[in-house]
Amino acid sequence: MVQGDELRANLKNVLSMIREYENNYMQRAALENQVRGEIAEQVEMAELLECTDRHYQRMEYGYVNVPSLTLLALADYFHVTTDYLLGREDTHDHH
């Protein structure tokens, strides 16, 4: 027969595992929401730039060169300089 202290310890372990599962679930849910948001943003930007979302994603990751007119459109959209988008300056002030 299980003693009172051992039963309390087992119950405490079970509750700890449930809390850990809940925390992991919440972290996964938050990550999934973030990914969904990023995908939605990529689709929106692709529509704005009149390209496929896959092509926009490739521009974002630096796999393809961004045409200068697209770069200007992005700078205007985000109210930053093209140098900021290219990583040539730290400030994003749009003059």
β-strand percent reads: under 5%
Class by SSE composition: mainly alpha
What is the residue-mean pLDDT, rounded to a whole number?
82
Helix content percent band: over 70%
User: What assembly state would you assign to the polypeptide chains in this entry?
Assistant: single chain
Structural write-up:
The protein has 95 residues and is mostly helical. It contains four helices and no strands. α1 packs across α2 (53-60). The mean pLDDT is 82.
Show the helix and strand layout:
Layout: H1 4-49, H2 53-60, H3 68-78, H4 82-85
Keywords:
95 residues; elongated; single chain; mainly alpha
Provide a brief overview of the structure.
The protein has 95 residues and is mostly helical. It has helices at 4-49, 53-60, 68-78, 82-85.
